[in-house]
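--- STAGE predict ---
source: upstream dedup step, 1 unique chain passed
mode: sequence only
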Amino acid sequence: MTVLTLPTSATVAPLTTQRTLARRLVHRSALAEVFLTDFQSVDEGTFRAAAQLPPAHFYYSDHTGRPSMHDPLAVFESVRQMLLCAMHLQHDAGADTKSITATASLEISDPEPLRVRGPLDLVLNGSVELAKEYRGAISRVVHRVRVLVGERHVGTITVDTAQRPNDVYESLRMSHRSTPAPYSDTLPEYTDGVPVPAWSVGRDRAENVVLENVRTEDGALVARLRVPVAHPSMFDHAQDHVPGPVMMEAARQASLVLAQEHQGLSPAGFYLQYVSAEYLRFAELDSDITVTTHRIPDSLDGGQWTEVAFGQAGGEVARMRVRLGSAVGAPAPSAGASDAV
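--- STAGE serialize ---
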């Protein structure tokens, strides 16, 4: 058993990675998709958790970058699971409450700890930056989470989430629809689109490609979102909309294609260093979503910055900003680097 410790009150027990938490707490169906292993409330405004990234994963490990590293979106998924758990255990949200993400951001400030062969243990330090209640129940909360490997700070994730009871959620879902929203498990697995080659988005598996019908217009990359409704990870369970992390993946892939087509840069040379997302309304499953990506030139830090817009039915459903970092780094340490401190 790996035991993780943090510089906190002596009354708080060490975090453990002995087993995963219950699937219901992190809203996952498959055990293989549960990365969170422990959760503790420290006080009203702080909480912490442990997670373990798997050594191999159909989706998160499928990258052509060398040296290989754990996927930053797997880190984001661990935090997303932590915050779902926090809604129930930290904020007392009931099982009939839905979480709706308004904004989210991920920044990897030190990628080297992610370059580990084998499983990787994470320590997640969460804080409540803003909390609002309505009729005695949490209605909005902004969380900030610091991600550590041992005592080394890897990055920071911030998420602004609304909490709504089921009946209110159903009313919101109909705000831009005239018919009930279909669920992903009722829709065809494949479309008539032409997906981009897996290598062009830094993937080996075609099943992990989420862009199709790519073209260039006025210097921008334009594509249709290839919604993977049967994907075992991106759609671990039935959804009535396109999940935010799927659009994050699309933004990453579009940024990689743009770097390759416009600058001749290999997708294998990059990792996702930063992404910020603003979700404006629900992304529907039964209407095409257009992904439009522009490069932001001459950034002060010299990074590969892009802006990505998601359009549907004449309106914008989400917008994101992405920075690709160089995948070149020090040789990957052995898995022992993630042992207890």
